[in-house]
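Fig. S4 source data, part A: sequence.
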Amino acid sequence: GSKEKIKEHEKTAVGAHMLLLLQHIKQLKASLCAAAKAANGSIPQSELNLNENKLHVFENIVAVLNKEVETSNLEITAFRRQSELDQNIIRGLELKIAELHRCLTQKDAGLSSLHKSLLFSEQASYDGVFLWKITDVGRKLQDSVTGRTVSLYSPAFYTAKYGYKVCLRVYLNGDGTGKGTHVSLFFVVMRGDYDALLPWPFRHKVTFMLLDQNNREHIIDAFRPDLTSASFQRPVNDMNVASGCPMFLPLSKLQSPKYAYVKEDTLFLKCIIETN
């Protein structure tokens, strides 16, 4: 085999080799004694005694070496046991680290969710009037055209402190009958914490405005809810189906230099819910 395999064999079979050597010495001793008897005393006694002494020395050396090998084997066994214990400790620590990592990930997700909730609560209004500032209009319009992000949702807002929870949904490149030609703007009734105490269906008049930032010609549209529509019943899911104005504003007018609906790549949408 290879040199590495030979070295490995030498390490693992030292004890066996020592036993073979001891057996070989005993066989040698027996053969010498047999030879001496066969020679009928022709070998001088002094030479026999010398060989006998040499054999004893070899036997002692082998016995000592054999004890050392046994001691080494015991130490190796102890090291192996300790190594197994260490491996078990390492595996336990790895599991603890994985658990800590999972806990940190959960806490990060919780903090992120809390941060979003704080942002939404800062942006929310509680009087039925909401002003939505949309930045990066050029990029978001392009994303709507390519289908990367077809629509945008506003933060949630409320008709009153304990009122209806609602939001806006805008398709900058249009939806339905307005797709590709108009900005489509919709109203969404959301599931709120106080729905059980509110009258249903939702029946308040909704007014949309796109603000001209030169304060000349705001775009205004309004509608009253269709009380038979599922969009205005008490929500079962997080959001009802959006309802509103698929042809709210022609895209040509949005991008026209005559108006200031988009200024510094920013537009403002306003929603007013009649709460009387």
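Fig. S4 source data, part B ends here. The chain has two domains: 3-118, 129-273.
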